[in-house]
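ok trying this again, last paste got cut off
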Amino acid sequence: MDPFLALLSSLSSSLSASELHELKFLCKDKIGKRKLESVESGRELFSFLMEQQLISSHDVDLLKRLFKTIKREDLVSRLTQFIEEGEASAPDERPDINERRLQKVVIEVICENVGRDWKMLMRKLNLSDVKMDRIVAANPHDLREQLVQSLREWQKWKGKDAKVTDLIKALRDCNMNLVADIAEQNLSRLNTENM
């Protein structure tokens, strides 16, 4: 079974009738009136959004915005967890489990310590300005979320070629040596704990 479809089914069953009504209203500009009138469950609504290519296992930004609007942060968290756990990409396209663990440590350090200069870092990682602009538009007032989403986009784009060494090198190339040092200290601490 497709993990993304299983997630959508689960999210659908978490919605009340009034929340579904709100979601339908919010999707008026995306789905035709006739189709929207026929929607009786979250699953049907999500199917139409997938048909329009507005959501996919690789792109849940619209769903997150919809759930935030109806104040269902719990559903936003489930989507975020789905993406973070790498369910969104095929297993053979992801780095091995150890590399993902190391990436998580370095990404946390980056998110804690890199501020407004995050775009410079992402450019060193070769993430396109178009993708960064889309991320900024989706999270206009949340600098940390812009950085988090950009790093996730980089991970998805690079797949199994996403390496911690690339993150450290990009930090050093941006003269963010202190952040790189903190990341390396955390990595060595993690390696020591796992011995």
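PB: full thing came through this time. The radius of gyration is 19 Å.
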